[in-house]
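## tool: complex_structure
## caller: assistant
## args:
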Amino acid sequence: MFYREAGQFKTSYAADQSIFPILQDRIGLGLIIATAFVLPVFGSDFFLQTLMIPFLIFALATMGLNVLTGYAGQLSLGTGAFMGVGAYSCYKLATIFPDVNIIVHVLLSGFFAAGVGILFGLPSLRIKGLYLAITTLAAQFFLEWAFIRVAWLYNYNESGAIEVPQRELLGVAITGPAASPMARYYVVLALVIFLTWITSNVIRGRIGRSWMMIRDMDIAAELMGIKPLNAKLSAFAMSSYLCGVAGALMVFMWLGAAEVESFNINQSFQILFMVIIGGMGSLIGCFLGAAFIYMLPIMMRALPDVLGIAMDASTTDHISRMLIGALIIFFLIVEPHGLARLWQITKEKLRNWPFPYS
Amino acid sequence: MELINSIFVEPFVLMADIPDLFLQTLWEGFVSGILYALIALGFVLIFKASGVFNFAQGIMVVFAALALVSLHTKFGVPAWLALLLAIALMGLLAVGIERVVLRPLVGQPDAILLMATIGLTLFLQGAGETIFGGEPQSMITTELGLPTGVTDWEPYDNFRVTFQHIDIAAVVIAVLMVAGLAVFFSKTRIGRALRAVADDHQAALSVGISLNQIWVIVWFAAGIVALVTGIMWGARSDVSFALEVIALKALAVLILGGFTSIPGAIVGGLIIGIGEKVFEVYWGSLFGGGVEAWFAYVLALIFLLFRPQGLFGEKIIERV
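## result:
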């Protein structure tokens, strides 16, 4: 009734091609962003620290993998390692150039991840599918090893972990132990919105279209003048950039200190699950998938208390793992396009409501 | 100059100087290579018959071994019965996977099926932890009648190579199992049907072979291979979920050997097993140690660039 595009006429090509052609979508998005910005006023620090900040960071990493797997069709199992490259290079930058603003470092560290991503993406020019998945596995294990063995990366720390130094933005501490969750939340939120905006436009543009052509049929794409070299490597670069920034944010804005375990193969799988459940080739799906996979174990942990069943923490952990595994298979069978598709169906339904047969 | 020396000269001098260390390294590598080959064998069986790249093979190894151990230690079932029950469990699992996962996903792209098996991995991991507990357990080696002693081979002074009996048993059992599978594939009715399916799905269907039935049999066979691997590997270390990460190395083995070749899986397993041990012992110090973690994958990566179909694989790889 209220969600309908009838009567909204476009008078210019720019308006016709705009990313949200429907007025209600624009209002909805504005509301969501506004809610995200006023959330800290109502939410506690605990809520921001354990739910919102990691959710946004994982959504960014999921977006990175989605660019590669969902849009360019190249399966990658090395997301965790690329996040690690971002985190470690951000740490090095922050300690070598302590005077430069930390936001600049976070954004720059993505470029190191992009470089590594291109390097390990090179085999994709000759092979694809399962074979490529294994080469990304090589990236995962090699980089994980490098994070432990190359002591220079963590400044020869005794513990082998990277610890975030305190940095300020406009006089407010945004990293380090003194930074309040609210300040960190705003930084993460602003960066994620900015990068989502960039990504959505890249995907709608010439480069994004070439990725989708490569995904749908590489030979046909090549015949139509797409260079697979450029398309695939740019997908690897963009994907690793986003993952790298997400990794840097994860350490600097959320964990505060990190070891190699934060970037191991399980992290890669977790991001992959977020992509699958959220929906491959969908940006809104990244947020839905990240929210779902990240929050499910947390809610599972709270569930026994609510139901009044005595169950120890490890059992609920195991059961939630089982549940996620089952859900992945379920989604692959029933709704391969993930939660994003369900969201679309809801919007379709809403468009016809309350007269579905009219 | 020093670098060249330490890469090309010193390791070989060391090998010639202390030959028993070299032989010991080779033997260790050989045994772990056999175990990699067994995991890869499970992959190959399933890939040949159904075109599914079974990421869950590693967790199946853990699951089978855990089931066996827990049945004996937690539920007090005698060892022989526990073995039979574990085999039955793998059969049940095969039927379940075929019904719930494979049948609805017929004809989907490879990547979707791969991701489904990753989901399966997570499910089995959670199920295994819930039912059998997540802590590492030691394998019931003596109860199953497996040897545990040690033999030293010492032909003359200052030359000693140690053989664990369990390692020798692992090699013998692996050889027997591969021989058994070879006979099964070439001599029996079901084996011929399996090969027909591996060759051409459509043609196999048209001569009256039931694909679903074949899939169950193949997953069951892979489950038994997983159980044997789990017993052997569990006897050398512990039965724990850490095994799963080691099992990922079988993927590198597959790249070397080719996805569809059983001899390839064995040769690839041996190359990786021996290669990583020798590389770790003689060249590892150049990189600061711990190279075992990635040697297999980087070798596979290099291999992919020059011979993507593997040593014995079919040449129909999709080039881009």
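## assistant note: Chain B touches chain A through 50 residues (CB under 8 Å). The longest strand of chain B covers residues 150-153. Handing back to user.
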